[in-house]
Every structure is written in C-alpha cells, then in structure tokens.
Amino acid sequence: MGLALLACVATGGLAGRSLGDWLVLDSAQDRVNAVATALMERTDEYYEMVVSLLIEANGDRLGPCSDDELFSLRRMAFATPVVADIGRLRGGRMICATSAGRLAEPIDQGEPDFVDGRGVRWFIDTDILLSEEISGPVLELGNISAVVDPRVFTENDSPGIALSLLAIDPFEGTVLRTVDDGFPFDARLLVGENAASDADLGLSDYLTALVCGGETIVCVAAAQTEDDARARGDLLVKAFGGMGGLVGASAFFVGFLLIRHDRSLPSQLRRAIRNDRLHVEYQPQVDFRDWRVVGMEALVRWTDESGVRHRPDHFVAVAEQHGFVSEITALVIRHVVHDTGALLLERPELHVSINFAAADLAGRTQVTLLDQALAAAGVPASQVTLELTERAACNDPQLKATLNAARAAGHQVAIDDFGIGFSNLSHLQCMPVDYLKVDKSFTDTVGTDSPRASIVPQILGMASALDLGVVVEGVETEQQVAYFAERGARIGQGWVFARAMPIDEFCNWLADWDVRHGGREVGT
Predict the structure, then answer these.
(1) Whose CA is closest to 424, among 466, 487, 486, 452?
(2) Domain hosting residue 173, numbered range
(3) Which of 96, 165, 374, 393 could covalently link to 179 via disulfide, CB atoms 3.0 to 4.6 Å apart?
(4) CATH code for position 430
(5) Is the pTM of this model over 0.70?
C-alpha cells in the first residue's frame, strides 16, 4: 500500500513537473507570438504615419526647397519620430532635404526595390545624409521622400525575446533586408522556402514567431530560447511538480484548464468589456464639395492585458464567434452617447455612425438601448447612423424588421465595407439602407492600373441607380477626393482629412479644421 501510494505521489509529481514545463513553454510561445504581433501592429502604425506625412508634404504649396518649405518639412519630421529625414524630389532626384538643406548636386534615387498597392515606392537600404553609421528604408510618394530611422523598430522591452524586422519581396518571397539588434540566428531561416521544421533548421531549442503586415512588405521575427523561458517560469514548474500524487494530478489538470481559459483571448476580451477597458475613437467624415465636416465614425479600440493592441476586425470577429459581440456594441453605444452627446446637440448638422453586427440586429434590444440612451441625452435619432456589414443576411426577416423600425425612428442605415463580400444589386434592393460605404481597397485603386479600378464606377453607378448615398473610406489623397467628387460621391473619410482620435482630440481638431477649411472648394 505504502509503495503504491509512493508510486502515485512520485508519478503525480513527475507528471506535474512535466505538465508545468509544457505550460511554461506554451505560455512563453503565446508571449513570443504576442510580442511579434504587437511590433508588427506598431510597424503598420508607423507606416500610416509616414504615408500621412508624405501626403501632407506633397500638398504643400510653399515653393520647392524654399526656406518656408524646408522649415515646414523640418517641423513635420520633428513631429514624426519615426522619420529621420525628408527630401524634395524633382524628376526622381533629390534636390533638398531637411538634414542638408538645398543640395549643390541633386542625388539620383534610382529604381525602387518595391512599389506597394498605395503607390508608395520603397528603397530598402539608404544612407542617411548626415550619418555614416545609420541607414534605413526610404519611402517615396509623389515628389517627397522620407527616410525611416530603423532604430525605432528595434526598441524592445520584452525580456528574453529577441526581435528582427525583415523586408520581404512579396512576389519572389526573398528577404531584401533584415534589421535587428542581436537576433540569435539568421531570421531569414523562418521565411519562405527556408521555413522548414524547427528541427531541420537547428532551431528546436527556440520558440519562434513570424508575423507579416497587411499594408507593408515588412515582417517581424521573434525568438526566445526554451531555456530562458524555463528559467523565467521556474517557480511555476516547481509548483506543479510539488502538487504530486493523485490529488496533485487532479489539481494541476484543473489549474491548467483554468489558467488556459483565463488567459485566452475571448476571456481577456470579456474581462475588458466587463471592466470598461475598451475605448472609442472618432474619424471625421468630410463633404468633398466644400470640405465641411458632416459626421464621424465611432471605432472601437482594445489593448489587452499584455499590452498588445488588437485590430478591431480581429477581436470583433472573436466576439462574434463566441456569441458576445452585442456586449461590445452596448459598450460602444454607452461611450458614443457620453462622448458625443454635447457635440451633437451643439452641432445638429453632425452625425455619428456606429457599427452593428448582424447578431445585434437579430432583435431590437441593441437599437432600443441606443434610442433610450439618445432620448436621455436629448439627441435626435437622425444624428446617429447604423452601419452593418454587407455579410448581413439579405433574407433575414427579423434583421429587416429591426432596420425598418430603426429608420422609422429617424436613424439612417449604411452598408459598411461595400464591395468586398456579398454585395450585388439584388442584395441592395432587398436591404432597407440609405447609403453604402466604398471599401478602402477600392479607393486605393484610383489612379492605378489595378483591375479593381474598373469596379469603382460600377459601384457608384449602382448607388446612383438605387438613389443611395455614398461614403468613401480610406481617402488619402486629394486626387482621390477629386475623382469621387467628379463622379457624384459627396462624403469621405481617411487620412487626407484625419485619422481616428479620442473625442477630446477630435473636438480640438474640428475647431481647427473649421478655421482652416471653412468654405473651401474641391481642388483649392
């Protein structure tokens, strides 16, 4: 009996230690994935900053390389920490830069390594004019170039995890350049045809992750040794080993399940909703004809317990899959009415758009919640638009009844991200909607040879035939503004106007915009 009990205890202890070790490595792998994802999302944000700067600088009318323009460009560079230098181009040659002023001899930029879908020209490895030690990628758009300081990408506050940035040719799958600070092996081993199993690559002692961006040619590699992960989780391994025996075995299995459940993304998201840790930002919508701000879209944001900022389309999809997306919608409604109520009352010409999932509209609970909150704040329903994904079922009678009731109460209804999924003429005809939103992927094709560019006039024609309004998403250049305005579209949102921002910042931006753009006509 004693020997049997001892054997059970010993077996349980070994099993506990083994499971503890597995849990430590599994948790560490999740952390490696999260750190790589966070850096990739930060890199995408930096890319948007640089593109916004390039668009703004191309719009300056201060005279190429004049003192006023150089001062303006230096101010932009100072306000954008990721940018080390900005240059003015003429005929593909740099004629001045914020670092060196007007150049006695123009510098030929040569051919780019890659041109992305937004027309941005990428030069992967270029020397910074006033530094012999630093080189970085250069991004060009129109007649402006921006040198990106690669050092901002290697800032790492995650102990034990090494990071590397890779520029990858998306057509060839080859690595054009890597940027890192002490990565333990050649990060190119994780890419493309090189990416065999870890054992074949001699990387079996590493926890690795490779995350690539949606807008850029950049990928992030992350790595941590298993020994380092074990050392950092040693107490957990010992604790599980100490459970021992049959009781220990039961306890650690229960503990394992609880820990895994507690740190899962859906659980974190539900805790964040419960504790009101999601927030809402607002992106302005502008009338193309006179550049008046006519509204804003409410966009939900979430940073998880590890500091990882998740994309809304990702975590909203998780909530939909797990059946609690309406909790996010209720939170957004509460924030929107609190944030914008006073502004909407002060500016009755403004409206705010709120995204609703199909599950939110399967009954009238969420719309009723919205109407009750608006009534308490004294805000008319006509100032709040319901946006729904075009994936919403056209033949769902309850959804159609909810939308009809919302419109009868005074709300307008829009189909979001139009054109990327299930939309067609019959879909629009059977849905009670007031306008559609042209997806950014179509806006990006304006002025390009993309086959999708030919779809844009068809979308606008479809909207006109059905007497639907149009809001253009992802507008980033005045060329795009002019294109859509000439074809009857009136309203747009995007970086050419402003990014999404918290309500206090939005109100300050709005006051400044009214002063700078009151009564402006398109193209002036």
Answers:
(1) 466
(2) 19-232
(3) 165
(4) 3.20.20.450
(5) no
